[in-house]
Write a structure and sequence with these properties.
Blueprint (H helix, E strand, L loop, with lengths): L5 H7 L9 H9 L9 H6 L1 H20 L14 H16 L6 E5 L5 H10 L2 E6 L2 H14 L5 E5 L12 E7 L8 H11 E14 L8 H14 L7 H11 L2 E7 L26 H16 L7 H20 L3 E10 L3
Parallel strand pairs: 1-2, 1-4, 2-3, 4-5
Antiparallel strand pairs: 5-7, 6-7
Helix pairs in contact: 1-4, 2-4, 5-6, 8-10, 9-12, 11-12
Amino acid sequence: MSKAGAFDLASGLGGKIQNDDVLSAVDKYEKYHSDFGGVEEDRKANYTDMVNKYYDLVTSFYEYGWGESFHFAPRWKGESLRESIKRHEHFLALQLGLKPGHKVLDVGCGIGGPLREIARFSSTSVMGINNNEYQITRGKALNRVAGVDQTCDFTKADFMKMPFSENSFDAVYAIEATCHAPDAVGCYKEIYRVLKPGQSFAAYEWCMTDAFDPNNQEHKKIKAEIEIGDGLPDIRSTRQCLAALKEAGFEVIWEQDLAKDSPLPWYLPLDTSHFSISSFRLTAVGRFITKNMVMALEYVGLAPKGSQRVQSFLEKAAEGLVAGGKKEIFTPMYFFLARKPQ
Protein backbone atom coordinates (compact mmCIF):
# COMPACT_ATOMS: atom_id res chain seq x y z
CA MET A 1 0.00 0.00 0.00
CA SER A 2 1.54 3.28 -1.12
CA LYS A 3 1.60 6.51 0.77
CA ALA A 4 -1.44 8.49 -0.22
CA GLY A 5 -1.74 11.76 1.65
CA ALA A 6 -0.02 15.11 1.92
CA PHE A 7 1.32 14.48 5.39
CA ASP A 8 2.71 11.09 4.30
CA LEU A 9 4.50 12.90 1.48
CA ALA A 10 5.85 15.52 3.89
CA SER A 11 7.05 12.93 6.41
CA GLY A 12 9.14 11.13 3.82
CA LEU A 13 10.72 14.11 2.11
CA GLY A 14 14.50 13.96 2.35
CA GLY A 15 14.57 10.22 3.06
CA LYS A 16 17.36 9.48 5.54
CA ILE A 17 18.76 13.01 5.27
CA GLN A 18 18.17 15.07 8.41
CA ASN A 19 15.58 17.80 7.80
CA ASP A 20 18.08 20.58 8.50
CA ASP A 21 20.45 19.10 5.89
CA VAL A 22 17.99 18.71 3.00
CA LEU A 23 18.64 22.15 1.52
CA SER A 24 22.42 21.63 1.44
CA ALA A 25 21.88 18.14 -0.06
CA VAL A 26 19.83 19.73 -2.87
CA ASP A 27 22.66 22.22 -3.46
CA LYS A 28 25.24 19.44 -3.67
CA TYR A 29 23.06 17.30 -5.91
CA GLU A 30 22.33 20.12 -8.36
CA LYS A 31 26.03 21.00 -8.63
CA TYR A 32 26.74 17.59 -10.18
CA HIS A 33 24.77 18.59 -13.29
CA SER A 34 25.59 20.70 -16.32
CA ASP A 35 22.96 23.39 -15.64
CA PHE A 36 24.89 24.17 -12.46
CA GLY A 37 28.40 23.78 -13.87
CA GLY A 38 28.82 20.03 -13.23
CA VAL A 39 30.52 17.65 -15.65
CA GLU A 40 29.91 14.04 -16.63
CA GLU A 41 33.28 12.88 -15.24
CA ASP A 42 32.40 14.11 -11.74
CA ARG A 43 28.97 12.49 -11.90
CA LYS A 44 30.54 9.16 -12.83
CA ALA A 45 33.31 9.42 -10.21
CA ASN A 46 30.79 10.29 -7.48
CA TYR A 47 27.82 8.27 -8.72
CA THR A 48 27.16 6.62 -5.33
CA ASP A 49 26.80 9.96 -3.54
CA MET A 50 24.86 11.55 -6.40
CA VAL A 51 22.36 8.70 -6.80
CA ASN A 52 21.90 8.31 -3.02
CA LYS A 53 21.16 12.01 -2.61
CA TYR A 54 18.77 11.84 -5.54
CA TYR A 55 16.72 8.96 -4.12
CA ASP A 56 16.69 10.35 -0.59
CA LEU A 57 15.28 13.56 -2.04
CA VAL A 58 12.75 12.17 -4.53
CA THR A 59 11.43 8.80 -3.29
CA SER A 60 8.42 10.24 -1.47
CA PHE A 61 7.50 12.31 -4.52
CA TYR A 62 7.74 9.20 -6.71
CA GLU A 63 5.60 7.10 -4.41
CA TYR A 64 3.05 9.90 -3.96
CA GLY A 65 2.62 10.40 -7.70
CA TRP A 66 3.49 7.04 -9.24
CA GLY A 67 2.88 4.28 -6.69
CA GLU A 68 5.32 1.55 -5.67
CA SER A 69 6.74 0.80 -9.14
CA PHE A 70 8.87 3.68 -10.37
CA HIS A 71 8.87 2.98 -14.11
CA PHE A 72 7.12 3.57 -17.42
CA ALA A 73 5.36 0.99 -19.61
CA PRO A 74 3.99 0.54 -23.13
CA ARG A 75 0.24 1.03 -22.93
CA TRP A 76 -2.84 -0.21 -24.75
CA LYS A 77 -5.89 1.96 -25.38
CA GLY A 78 -8.35 1.54 -22.51
CA GLU A 79 -5.60 0.34 -20.17
CA SER A 80 -4.84 2.27 -16.99
CA LEU A 81 -1.29 3.27 -16.05
CA ARG A 82 -1.36 0.82 -13.13
CA GLU A 83 -2.50 -2.04 -15.39
CA SER A 84 0.20 -1.27 -17.96
CA ILE A 85 2.91 -1.22 -15.30
CA LYS A 86 1.86 -4.63 -13.98
CA ARG A 87 1.76 -6.07 -17.50
CA HIS A 88 5.24 -4.66 -18.20
CA GLU A 89 6.54 -6.47 -15.10
CA HIS A 90 4.77 -9.72 -16.03
CA PHE A 91 6.27 -9.54 -19.52
CA LEU A 92 9.75 -9.46 -17.98
CA ALA A 93 8.98 -12.50 -15.81
CA LEU A 94 7.66 -14.43 -18.81
CA GLN A 95 10.67 -13.55 -20.96
CA LEU A 96 12.98 -14.83 -18.21
CA GLY A 97 10.99 -18.07 -17.97
CA LEU A 98 10.63 -17.74 -14.21
CA LYS A 99 9.35 -20.81 -12.39
CA PRO A 100 8.35 -21.55 -8.79
CA GLY A 101 11.41 -21.95 -6.61
CA HIS A 102 13.73 -19.83 -8.76
CA LYS A 103 16.06 -17.46 -6.94
CA VAL A 104 15.89 -14.11 -8.72
CA LEU A 105 17.84 -10.84 -8.42
CA ASP A 106 16.31 -7.38 -8.97
CA VAL A 107 19.17 -4.96 -9.69
CA GLY A 108 18.39 -1.43 -8.49
CA CYS A 109 15.05 -2.42 -6.98
CA GLY A 110 13.74 0.89 -5.61
CA ILE A 111 11.15 0.31 -2.88
CA GLY A 112 10.36 -3.09 -4.39
CA GLY A 113 7.11 -2.62 -6.31
CA PRO A 114 8.21 -4.79 -9.27
CA LEU A 115 9.94 -7.22 -6.92
CA ARG A 116 6.69 -7.94 -5.06
CA GLU A 117 4.61 -8.13 -8.23
CA ILE A 118 7.03 -10.50 -10.00
CA ALA A 119 7.44 -12.69 -6.90
CA ARG A 120 3.66 -13.12 -6.60
CA PHE A 121 3.17 -13.59 -10.35
CA SER A 122 5.87 -16.26 -10.70
CA SER A 123 6.01 -17.85 -7.20
CA THR A 124 9.72 -17.07 -6.98
CA SER A 125 12.02 -15.69 -4.30
CA VAL A 126 13.34 -12.26 -5.26
CA MET A 127 16.30 -10.43 -3.75
CA GLY A 128 16.49 -6.70 -4.40
CA ILE A 129 19.82 -4.89 -4.37
CA ASN A 130 19.78 -1.17 -3.66
CA ASN A 131 22.30 1.24 -2.18
CA ASN A 132 19.74 3.63 -0.68
CA GLU A 133 18.93 2.98 2.98
CA TYR A 134 15.64 4.90 2.99
CA GLN A 135 14.26 2.94 0.03
CA ILE A 136 15.24 -0.38 1.62
CA THR A 137 13.55 0.56 4.91
CA ARG A 138 10.42 1.53 3.02
CA GLY A 139 10.58 -1.60 0.85
CA LYS A 140 10.83 -3.95 3.83
CA ALA A 141 7.76 -2.32 5.39
CA LEU A 142 5.82 -2.79 2.15
CA ASN A 143 6.99 -6.42 1.90
CA ARG A 144 5.46 -7.08 5.31
CA VAL A 145 2.19 -5.43 4.28
CA ALA A 146 2.09 -7.52 1.09
CA GLY A 147 2.92 -10.73 2.96
CA VAL A 148 6.03 -11.52 0.89
CA ASP A 149 8.63 -10.83 3.58
CA GLN A 150 9.43 -14.55 3.88
CA THR A 151 10.33 -14.94 0.20
CA CYS A 152 11.55 -11.46 -0.76
CA ASP A 153 14.27 -9.34 0.79
CA PHE A 154 16.71 -6.51 0.15
CA THR A 155 20.48 -6.15 0.26
CA LYS A 156 22.02 -2.71 0.74
CA ALA A 157 24.97 -2.62 -1.63
CA ASP A 158 26.41 -1.05 -4.76
CA PHE A 159 25.39 -3.07 -7.82
CA MET A 160 28.83 -2.33 -9.31
CA LYS A 161 30.32 -4.45 -6.46
CA MET A 162 27.70 -6.98 -5.42
CA PRO A 163 28.21 -9.02 -2.23
CA PHE A 164 27.01 -12.27 -3.83
CA SER A 165 28.95 -15.38 -4.81
CA GLU A 166 29.44 -16.34 -8.45
CA ASN A 167 26.60 -18.28 -10.08
CA SER A 168 24.10 -17.42 -7.32
CA PHE A 169 20.90 -16.59 -9.22
CA ASP A 170 18.56 -18.39 -11.62
CA ALA A 171 17.61 -15.10 -13.27
CA VAL A 172 18.47 -11.39 -13.04
CA TYR A 173 16.48 -8.38 -14.15
CA ALA A 174 16.76 -4.60 -13.99
CA ILE A 175 13.95 -2.13 -14.58
CA GLU A 176 15.10 1.38 -15.53
CA ALA A 177 17.87 1.10 -12.92
CA THR A 178 21.25 0.23 -14.45
CA CYS A 179 21.11 3.57 -16.28
CA HIS A 180 22.53 4.91 -12.97
CA ALA A 181 25.72 2.85 -13.45
CA PRO A 182 28.80 4.92 -14.29
CA ASP A 183 30.08 2.11 -16.51
CA ALA A 184 27.70 -0.21 -18.38
CA VAL A 185 30.31 -2.89 -19.09
CA GLY A 186 31.35 -3.05 -15.42
CA CYS A 187 27.74 -3.26 -14.32
CA TYR A 188 26.84 -6.00 -16.79
CA LYS A 189 29.98 -7.95 -15.87
CA GLU A 190 28.88 -8.00 -12.22
CA ILE A 191 25.45 -9.28 -13.27
CA TYR A 192 27.14 -11.90 -15.47
CA ARG A 193 29.26 -13.00 -12.50
CA VAL A 194 26.34 -13.66 -10.11
CA LEU A 195 24.07 -15.28 -12.73
CA LYS A 196 24.17 -19.06 -13.14
CA PRO A 197 25.53 -20.40 -16.46
CA GLY A 198 22.82 -20.93 -19.07
CA GLN A 199 20.45 -18.51 -17.35
CA SER A 200 19.12 -15.14 -18.47
CA PHE A 201 19.32 -11.43 -17.71
CA ALA A 202 16.59 -9.08 -18.93
CA ALA A 203 16.28 -5.33 -18.58
CA TYR A 204 14.51 -2.16 -19.54
CA GLU A 205 17.16 0.53 -20.09
CA TRP A 206 16.91 4.30 -20.37
CA CYS A 207 18.68 5.21 -23.62
CA MET A 208 19.14 7.84 -26.27
CA THR A 209 17.96 6.49 -29.61
CA ASP A 210 19.59 6.71 -33.03
CA ALA A 211 17.54 9.86 -33.63
CA PHE A 212 19.53 11.73 -30.95
CA ASP A 213 22.00 14.23 -32.43
CA PRO A 214 24.78 15.16 -29.95
CA ASN A 215 25.43 18.34 -31.96
CA ASN A 216 21.81 19.51 -31.76
CA GLN A 217 21.47 22.07 -28.93
CA GLU A 218 17.81 21.27 -28.29
CA HIS A 219 18.60 17.54 -28.08
CA LYS A 220 21.46 18.25 -25.66
CA LYS A 221 19.16 20.40 -23.48
CA ILE A 222 16.55 17.63 -23.31
CA LYS A 223 19.19 15.06 -22.38
CA ALA A 224 20.56 17.34 -19.62
CA GLU A 225 17.05 17.90 -18.19
CA ILE A 226 16.51 14.14 -17.96
CA GLU A 227 19.92 13.64 -16.31
CA ILE A 228 19.42 16.22 -13.55
CA GLY A 229 15.80 15.25 -12.96
CA ASP A 230 16.53 11.53 -12.74
CA GLY A 231 19.93 11.22 -11.06
CA LEU A 232 21.87 10.02 -14.11
CA PRO A 233 25.61 10.42 -14.71
CA ASP A 234 25.04 10.09 -18.48
CA ILE A 235 22.44 8.53 -20.78
CA ARG A 236 23.89 5.86 -23.05
CA SER A 237 22.67 5.04 -26.53
CA THR A 238 20.92 1.78 -27.35
CA ARG A 239 23.97 0.80 -29.41
CA GLN A 240 26.28 1.39 -26.42
CA CYS A 241 24.12 -0.81 -24.19
CA LEU A 242 24.08 -3.60 -26.75
CA ALA A 243 27.86 -3.42 -27.21
CA ALA A 244 28.39 -3.41 -23.42
CA LEU A 245 26.29 -6.57 -23.02
CA LYS A 246 28.38 -8.40 -25.58
CA GLU A 247 31.64 -7.14 -24.08
CA ALA A 248 30.51 -8.42 -20.67
CA GLY A 249 30.16 -11.91 -22.18
CA PHE A 250 26.42 -12.22 -22.74
CA GLU A 251 24.72 -13.77 -25.74
CA VAL A 252 21.94 -11.39 -26.79
CA ILE A 253 18.79 -13.37 -27.56
CA TRP A 254 16.73 -10.39 -28.69
CA GLU A 255 16.49 -6.66 -28.15
CA GLN A 256 14.00 -3.96 -29.11
CA ASP A 257 12.88 -0.47 -28.20
CA LEU A 258 9.39 -1.28 -26.92
CA ALA A 259 8.40 2.39 -27.08
CA LYS A 260 8.14 2.15 -30.86
CA ASP A 261 5.16 -0.21 -30.82
CA SER A 262 3.26 1.25 -27.84
CA PRO A 263 -0.33 2.08 -28.93
CA LEU A 264 -0.33 4.99 -26.46
CA PRO A 265 2.82 7.08 -25.87
CA TRP A 266 4.80 5.94 -22.84
CA TYR A 267 5.16 9.58 -21.74
CA LEU A 268 1.39 10.20 -21.72
CA PRO A 269 1.10 10.28 -17.89
CA LEU A 270 3.55 13.22 -17.80
CA ASP A 271 2.13 15.12 -20.77
CA THR A 272 0.41 18.25 -19.44
CA SER A 273 -2.07 18.17 -22.33
CA HIS A 274 -3.39 14.81 -21.06
CA PHE A 275 -5.94 14.46 -18.25
CA SER A 276 -6.69 11.29 -16.31
CA ILE A 277 -8.74 10.73 -13.17
CA SER A 278 -6.93 7.48 -12.36
CA SER A 279 -3.51 9.20 -12.61
CA PHE A 280 -4.71 12.61 -11.42
CA ARG A 281 -1.57 13.44 -9.41
CA LEU A 282 0.54 13.22 -12.58
CA THR A 283 -1.66 15.60 -14.61
CA ALA A 284 -0.98 19.33 -14.98
CA VAL A 285 -3.70 20.12 -12.42
CA GLY A 286 -2.47 17.43 -10.03
CA ARG A 287 1.13 18.63 -10.30
CA PHE A 288 0.03 22.26 -9.75
CA ILE A 289 -1.78 21.18 -6.58
CA THR A 290 1.25 19.19 -5.42
CA LYS A 291 3.56 22.15 -6.07
CA ASN A 292 1.44 24.49 -3.96
CA MET A 293 0.93 21.86 -1.28
CA VAL A 294 4.69 21.34 -0.97
CA MET A 295 5.17 25.11 -0.83
CA ALA A 296 2.64 25.34 2.02
CA LEU A 297 4.10 22.35 3.89
CA GLU A 298 7.59 23.84 3.63
CA TYR A 299 6.31 27.26 4.76
CA VAL A 300 4.71 25.85 7.94
CA GLY A 301 7.71 23.62 8.67
CA LEU A 302 6.07 20.23 8.00
CA ALA A 303 8.35 19.68 4.99
CA PRO A 304 12.10 20.46 5.11
CA LYS A 305 13.52 23.52 3.38
CA GLY A 306 14.60 22.54 -0.12
CA SER A 307 11.50 20.42 -0.84
CA GLN A 308 10.21 22.94 -3.39
CA ARG A 309 13.50 22.77 -5.27
CA VAL A 310 13.28 18.97 -5.44
CA GLN A 311 9.77 19.28 -6.85
CA SER A 312 11.11 21.85 -9.33
CA PHE A 313 13.86 19.61 -10.78
CA LEU A 314 11.37 16.74 -11.02
CA GLU A 315 9.15 19.06 -13.09
CA LYS A 316 12.17 19.79 -15.30
CA ALA A 317 12.71 16.05 -15.70
CA ALA A 318 9.07 15.55 -16.71
CA GLU A 319 9.41 18.26 -19.35
CA GLY A 320 12.60 16.65 -20.67
CA LEU A 321 11.07 13.18 -20.74
CA VAL A 322 7.99 14.33 -22.65
CA ALA A 323 10.10 16.31 -25.12
CA GLY A 324 12.49 13.38 -25.57
CA GLY A 325 9.58 11.03 -26.14
CA LYS A 326 7.83 13.28 -28.63
CA LYS A 327 11.02 13.77 -30.63
CA GLU A 328 11.77 10.02 -30.30
CA ILE A 329 15.34 10.75 -29.20
CA PHE A 330 14.91 9.02 -25.82
CA THR A 331 13.36 5.76 -24.63
CA PRO A 332 12.88 4.37 -21.10
CA MET A 333 12.16 0.89 -22.40
CA TYR A 334 15.01 -0.39 -24.52
CA PHE A 335 14.44 -4.07 -23.78
CA PHE A 336 16.92 -6.89 -24.07
CA LEU A 337 17.04 -10.55 -23.11
CA ALA A 338 20.58 -11.94 -22.78
CA ARG A 339 21.97 -15.32 -21.73
CA LYS A 340 25.12 -16.33 -19.88
CA PRO A 341 26.65 -19.21 -21.89
CA GLN A 342 26.85 -22.67 -20.30
